[in-house]
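Model it.
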Amino acid sequence: MAAIESLKAILDKTYEGMTPKQLMSQSPAALAGVTEGDALKLKEAFGIDTIEELATCKYFLWAQALHVLAKTEK
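Modeled.
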């Protein structure tokens, strides 16, 4: 799979051209707006080393689920 052009908006320039699969093993610092310092804090707080671990972190998934539920609450 070729890199997806529209990903440029969410990636640090260094990582542009990588496929989503390749990006899963990269540091969260590959994401635009996430610094190396931010990535270090994610590692210290949650043990997150990669974008895949960030995407599947149970605390972030729980927060997303609560957000969806809150939006549907009457």
